[in-house]
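=== RUN LOG ===
request id: a7f3
mode: sequence -> structure
chains: 1
length: 317
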Amino acid sequence: MGYFPAMHRVTALVRPVQSTFELGIAAEVFGTERAGVPRYYDFDICTEKPGPVPTTAGYAISVTRGLSALAAADTVLIPGWTPVDAPLSAPVRRALLRAHARGARLVTICSGVFALARTGLLDGRSATTHWACAARLQEEFPRIRVEADVLYVDHGDVATSAGAGAGIDLCLHLVRRDHGAAHAALVARHMVMPPHRDGGQAQFVPAPSPSDELDGLLEWAGARLGTPLSVGELAAYLSVSPRTLARRFADRLGTTPGGWLLTRRVTEARTLLEETDLPVEVIAARVGLTSAVNLRRRFRAQVGTTPGAYRRAFRGS
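=== RESULT ===
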């Protein structure tokens, strides 16, 4: 788990023709100042040859910084790489490898994985990209384990995301890693985005209809995390069978009712660990995980660490 008490520099490496949406994702999450939201990131962009950089929107952006900017980056972000068969020049490859060697985190959105793959840093690891490019990525880079149906894959030092929308999920996930669930939820709320979609969730998630009654259920259940809610009780709230409820969760959220409830409880536990001094036993009861032993087991499975270590990382010893 990362923790950056000082300003963390995120530098996006752009190239012609740059996707404005994918670059905008990075700028929105890491570079936008918002009233009432603590600022932890310093966002910048660079390119191999400074000057006007054409974009997919039909206009050019003026990029004044060259590859030397990557020497000071804590996170290097590649917001797309089109066309995907565009070669990685020797200077760009060296700059990316040097950044990684000194400890910078390398992150890609959508087709940006093709640039990262050409450094060799993904060999022997799992990665993802837009589902339409997954077969091409696997064919060109057989040493990479391509996961074509997840939103993002994070190895700590390198991270990749699926289609452009999944780039938002990955960037918010990185904020959550760096500064905790509460801060990530605050940023997501300002962006009018869901606070968390798990990286293992399938890419094919149909959009809910405007009259989606699940919204009411999620709010109702979220207010009752301290009670021993069952799938049967969730189904009863909507007056449907557990089987119908499971189908609606799969269609609209890409998960199961039980899986959603467990993730929601662990997320609430993270917030309480960050913001309160409550004992782990009390937090376990408040979020409906019954005991400290059960909370520790579930927490480690989802977050990869213990509640105590998580609290120390974000609140100090």
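=== NOTES ===
Residues 1-5, 201-212 have pLDDT under 50 and may be disordered.
The longest helix spans residues 257-275.
=== END ===
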